[in-house]
Structure formats: structure tokens, C-alpha cells
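Dissemination and training. As part of the outreach component of the grant, students in the summer workshop were shown how a complex can be specified as a set of sequence lines and then modelled as a single object. The example used during the hands-on session is reproduced here so that future cohorts can follow it. Participants entered these lines:
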Amino acid sequence: MVNDINLVSNKDESTLKQKKQLRVVRITAVASLVMVFLFSVLIFVISSMIGLSSIKNSENSALNSISFLHKKEAELAIVNNRLQDITTILQNRKNYTSEINSLLQIIPSGAYVNSIEINKDSLTLVIVSNSLLPINSFLNSLTGFAQKNQLVKDVIIENLSINGKTGLYSLSIQATIL
Amino acid sequence: MNEKKKINIDSATLNYLYHKYKDFLLPIGIIIACLLLFVLVIIPQFQSMLDSQQQAKAEASKLEVLRNNLNLLTNLDQAQLDSQLQVASSALPPGKNFFGILTGISTAANNAGVTLGDYSFQVGNITNPASGGIASFPSLEVDLTVNGGTKGVTEFMAQLYKTVPLSEVTNIVLSNVSSQLTVLFYYRPFPPLGFNDSAPVQVVSPTGLSTLTNLSSWNNLSNQPQAPSQPAPSSSSSAGTTSPF
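and obtained this result:
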């Protein structure tokens, strides 16, 4: 015989708990459905806004128009290529005119240049005079240039001779053009 | 004494569990399905959308370049371009322009007031030019005899350097009576042409325009008869023998 009578049934507590759990699970399910739906719509809208196909169409149209201008494009490319090469040549080609003029300017009166030979920045010059004084003056001027690191360097006297018949002195020098 | 509780899993138990929790089945199933959809479908779609966005950006840049190119080429004056090409090709011909060279030498001699003696052409090795600088440019070597004294010859060299085609005096033997010059006349075949539509078109730069203006003022450029033009090769053929247009 049971002495205690429990007027409150335990069965209601567990049912209440289960109902709460069921409610939570149902809310979670609905929320999941809504989120999946929202994400799908969002991705769809953004993808359609990107408009890749319209860009591709515009590209094809531009390419088609450019294909009629390939002759101009080719000419322009050739002109640019030529100009690049021309600039390289103009900047790098040797011009000995100023060096020759500078040398001719320091030839004193009473002397004259018999020959000047320039080959790959190497200079060979023969000066002739009936006196050693102009030759000396020329040498002084030339070595002055070399000392100032102008025009030439490494001046070497190759030959100094006199022609017994004519009495003319001949000086041959070699130098490196700067 | 602890006794291990035995759990009976039989159909009655399963039936009992099913009836007890059957209300949970549908929502849990929905949650699992949504999770799977999210992982297997939505996330890959999102990645794909990002890739499409990147691709669209790249294509938009490419389209911008194409439109700029189209605009530039449409507005380019054909006559001016033809003139620039003529000047550039006269200064640096695509092939051996013997007639242009002889005309240039004669013009320089006339302008300098000197007379020419014999001259000869030396055809060098054009297949294996020296590497680097203008030594890598193919050239025709001409040995000249110039009569006119040292001043006349220096003036001749100055005039030659303002005459097309471009040249360079590499060896000088000056004397008061006649002088020997070795002159290189440069030429260069047209490069193989390939059209890269996604690369921006480069118009002639201000420096290039200045060079062209300078060249246009040179001797014999305006009245030099043009030798038959050496067209540029296509990308698949050998150099200097086919038209670029």
C-alpha cells in the first residue's frame, strides 16, 4: 500500500520539456530553410548583375571593328620599330668630324697635315713643317688636350724625321681618341 | 551490487521510440537537408560567383583597352602615317638600297663641294651580325675616295651624316689631295608582324616625332626616289621578302 500520494504527475514535466525541444528544432528548421532560400536568391541576383556575356559581346564587336584597321596598326608598329632602331644608330654611331676639326685648329702656321688616319678610335697623324718650332707648338697643344682629358689620350710619337732633300721635318704621332 | 542494465533493441523498442520522437523527424530532416544544400550547393555557387566577378573585371579591362585601341586607330591620320613610314624606311631601309646609297653619297658630295673617286661595295656577313649595339645591325660597307682636301672631306662627312640612309664612317685616311673613307650604310628587315589585340596600341612618342621631324629636314629625303619597298614578312615566313600589308 502506498502511503504518499503525489498529486503532481511527473509525466507532465517530461512532456513539457519535449515540447520545448520540439519547438526549438522546428524553429531551427524553418530558419535553415529561410537562410538557404535567401542565400540562393542573393547569389542569383549578384550573378545576373555581373553581366559577363554583355562584356564579351562588346569585346567581339570592338575586335571586329579593329580587324578593319590592321593595316594602320601594322604601319604604326613598323614606324615605332624603325624609330627605335634609328634612335639607337643616331646615339651610338661615331662622328669624328669634331675631333678632326679640333686637330686641324691646333695646326700652327708653318706646318701642315700630311695625313690623318682614324680607325676604331685610334688616331695616326703626320704633320710636316720646315721648322721644328711649329711641330713643337703642335705637340704642346696636343699634349695639353691629353692632360686635360680632352680629345685624345695616350699620345705616342712614332717617328720624327727630316727629308734631306727638301729639309722638311715630319712628325708621326699615334693617339687614342676619347 | 551493481548489475549491468541490459537494453533490449527490438521492434517493440524501436516502435516505442518512433512514436515518442516522430514529431522531431521532419524538422531534423529539414535541417540536415539545408546543411547539405549549403555545403554542397550554395558555397560552390558562391565561389563560382566570385570567379565570375574576377573574370568580369578582367574582361572589362580588356574591353577598355580594345576601345582605346579602336579610338586611337580610327583617329590616326593615314596620310601622316604613310609619310612617317616613308621617312623612317628611307632612313633605315628594310633591305639593301643601293640606289639610295649612291644618291645619298652624291648628294653629300655635291653639298660639301667635293668630288668622288672610285668606290666599291663590300657585302658583309648579314646572317651573323655582331651582338649588341649598332654592330648588330646589318650594313653595307662602301669604300670611297673623296677629292677635296681635309676641310672638304670633313664637310662631306658632316653632310653624309645628314643624309639618308643612315651611315657611319668607321675608317678615315685624310690627306690634302684625296682621302679614303670606309662608310657603313645601315639597313634592317622589317620585324615579323603579329597582332595582339589585347595589348595597347602605342602611338609615335613625342621623342619619335621629334626624330621624324629631324630626319625630314635632312638632305635628299624629300626628293629621293624610292627603291622598290621591301615588305615586312608574315610571322611564318623568312625576313625581308613579303609585304606587311
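Chain A has a mean pLDDT of 88. Students were then asked to discuss how this feature might be tested experimentally.
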